[in-house]
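Take a minute with the sequence and C-alpha cells given here and flag any C-alpha cell that looks odd. Thanks in advance.
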Amino acid sequence: MPGAVVILLSLWLSPAAAVWPEDSSPASIAAAAHPNPLVGERLGFHGRWIGIPVGSGWIEVKEIVTIEGRPAYHIEVQGHTNEVLSTFYPIHDTIHSYLDVDTLKPVRFEKDQREGRYRAHEIVTFDHQRAIATYRSLVNNAVKEIALPETFEDLISALYWFRRQPLQPGRSLSLNIYTDEKIFHTEIEVLPIIPLELLKRGTFSCVVVEPKASFKGLLVKRGRLWAYLTADEHRLPLLVKATTPWGPMSAVLDEASIPPTVQRKNTP
C-alpha cells in the first residue's frame, strides 16, 4: 500500500475558516469567505485499509515565516503507518507547503517520503512571474524546471482554493494541481447533501465531493476518492473514502478535532 495513498487521504483533512449559510439546501451553498489558515490549528485522523487500522496523520498550520521576502503560512502534513503495518511496510511521509499570506498561492512545497525501501525528498519553488516551477531532489541532486499554467495550486493550497468557491450539487469545479513534476487538470464533482452518521460522534449533514484528475487529457483511473464535508460554516472534512488497486481505504477525523460548534443532528 503506497504511502502516497496515505498522504492523499490526509490532504483532505485541512482546516479552513469558511462561511456557509445556515440553510444548506442545494440552492443556498454560497462561496466561502477568504479562508485564512489559523496558526496553531491541527486536525488529526486515523486511517483504515480494508477495515483494518493502518495508521494516522494530521495537518497543522504551524506558523508564519518569510519566503522570498514575503510572509507565508507554513502548513505541515504527516502520514504514518501504525506499529503493526510498520513491521513489514513502514510509511513515514511528510509534506510542507508554504502559502502566501495575502493570496494563498503556493510559493514553496517540500515532500519527504519514506515508504519501505523507497526514499524521496524534494523541494519545489514556484515562480509565478516566470510561470516556472523549479524541482530539486535532495536524494540524487536532480534539478528540473516545469512550465506552469496561468492558474494552479499545489496539493495543500488546492484545499483552501476549494473552500473559497461557491458549491452547487450536480455541478463541477475545475483547477490545475501541481504534483510529482506534472500538472494535473482536476475536476471536483459536487454531489448531493446527505446525512452522515459516525460512531460516537453523531449524525452530520454533509456535502460529498469527488475529485477526478487527468493528465494530458487522460483520466487518472487508479482509484476514486470521496470526501464528506459538514454542510455548515466549518466545511469540516469528517470522512474520506477511497477505492484503490490495493483495496478500500478510509480516514476519519478524530473526535478531538471536531469543534463543539459543528452542527450535529443527533449524538448517541
In short: The CA atoms of residues 134 and 145 lie 5 Å apart. The chain has three helices and 15 strands.
